[in-house]
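User: Second chain of the day. Same drill as before.
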Amino acid sequence: MTLNELELDALAELFNLGVGQAADALSQLAGEAVQLSIPRVQLLPKAEVVRQLGTEGERRISAVRQGFHGEIVTDAVLMFPAEQSLQLVQIMVGEAVPLEQLGEMEQEALAEIGNILLNSVVASVGDALGIEFDGSLPEVELGVLSEVLLANETVTEPLLSLQVRFEIASRSVVGHLAFLLDIRSSGRLESKVADFIRRLQVEAP
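Assistant: Same format as last time:
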């Protein structure tokens, strides 16, 4: 799979629209603005994605993983440092809940946050490219960054990585969204993006 600069820019913009919708959803949960970076779109080995997401590949993280299947197959992963997970739960359920109760509802709340964010992004991109996705239930994973992201798969296998950094400033919560596309789906995505660009060019005055 090869994407030229125009195709990479178009794909980044599609995901940018999606993460904007996701940020709005999280902002409503948090009651405050969520800052998002412009997505980085790259075709990389999985090991390189780990390196880019953290200088410490063994750092413990909390993650929500959700698989999406259709013409294109992708794993979407929401990740943030493990020590910040309770802060995210508190965003979801409110300040008044005691800390000990937060721990009990942590996985359920994280799964709900991940479900909102990941589905917002994937649905937006799917609508723009004319792709229907069936999503699996979100799964919460706790572990080191390399294990969670690589999921015991071949680290040299290339994948399309779309990364966006989000930050809730007043809570000091910083995380990443990554969309990991298996190489077998890469050609289909390339074709869909090319069709999208052609439609825009035809519609342009």
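The mean pLDDT is 78.

User: Great, on to the next one.
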